[in-house]
Amino acid sequence: MKIAFFGTPEPSAKLLEALLKESGIQVQFVVTNPDRPKGRSKTLVPSPVKEAALAANLPVFQFESIKKEKENALEQFSKFDAQLYVVFAYGSILPKEVFSSPKFGSINLHGSILPDLRGASPVQTSLWKGYTKSGISIQHLGEKMDEGDIIKIQEVEIDLEDDTGTLMEKITQAGIESVIPLLKGNREKAFEAIPQDHSKATYCTKIQAEDRVLDLKLPAIDLHNRIRALSPDLGGYCRFREKRMVLWKTRPSDFSDGKIEPGRLKRMDKKALLFQCGDGRFLEILSVQPENKNRITVADFLNGFRISDEDRFE
Which intervals hold domain Formyl transferase N-terminal (predicted)? Predict the structure, then answer.
């Protein structure tokens, strides 16, 4: 099948690279978000999808707003004979004139089991909510976000130690395994699909700056879920010795001492440190980042800061 690919971040690039290895799939062109400034130098950096496309000598199109530039986009895309557009984490909404233009329309890979968690952060939100299962939904693209008919669903198990990075890897692999068989071989009509039950829809939004602030009065499992939902890219933070402390990785602990003081630190040995949550249970700290410092293990944190049982997270 002849396709065009729309995507931007690293998971999208992994799917694109997998599609390029399949002899029965011809990627004719790629659409990705514009290069963005990065670091203190503000050097423009291409998206992972652009890098993968250029490495494969594929035509690449970038639009600040494909909705505002749809006439130009349609003109450029019409020079190719792609039968289907494949979208995975492109980062911009495609206008109907664009997604309906190929012979078989457009399909989208979404990182949840629709109609649950429609929106911008399904992977993070599934962790935040403490799900034990999520998955990938392949759907026809429609005018309203994530409301298209479902072509295929593949479930993914969520382990207690998963964070957004590891769960995204699982979901990306599930997407690769699901979409490639659909695109191989000859096709005469669009994919058969089942309408969603819109009455069961739930929604999620982009993670905001205030979501990173950790409420230490929450139960331990809720705090653990928030921290792993924010890792490995954002991190949740609290205060330690009047400075910001980012918590990157934790795990639930069975330790208990009967006294409840949320934020209280408990040093177990030279390599283990716990903090107490609002329900009296403790989380073991595995990775932190003190203000103006690099991310470090808890062993390095203990050695560098001389932690005692009198210390607190605030």
Answer: 1-176
C-alpha of 245 from chain center: 23
Is 114 marked as a binding-site residue?
Answer: yes
Q: Is 115 assigned a ligand-binding role in the annotation?
A: yes
The helix-helix angle for 10-20 and 164-183 (nearest 10°) equals 30
Task: Quickly list H helices, 32-163.
Answer: 48-55, 70-77, 96-99, 122-128
Beta strand 282-290 with 296-297 is antiparallel
CB 275 within 8 A of CB 261: no
Does 46 show up as a binding residue in the annotation? no
Query: What pLDDT tens digit does each residue of the chain (314 aa) get?
Result: 999 999 999 999 999 999 999 988 999 999 999 999 987 788 999 999 999 999 999 999 999 999 999 999 999 999 999 999 999 999 999 999 999 999 999 999 999 999 999 999 999 999 999 999 999 999 999 999 999 999 999 999 999 999 999 999 999 999 999 999 999 878 888 999 999 999 999 999 999 999 999 999 999 999 999 999 999 999 999 999 999 999 999 999 999 888 899 999 998 877 789 999 999 999 999 999 999 999 999 989 988 888 887 889 99
**Residues 35, 52, 16, 68, Cα dihedral to 10°:** 20
Give all domains of the chain, ordered by start, each with its CATH number.
Answer: 2-204 (3.40.50.170), 209-305 (3.10.25.10)
Confirm or deny that 199 is annotated as ligand binding: no
Distances (CA, A) of 153 to 35, 64, 168, 171, 314: 32, 31, 16, 11, 42
DSSP-based three-state secondary structure for 264: strand
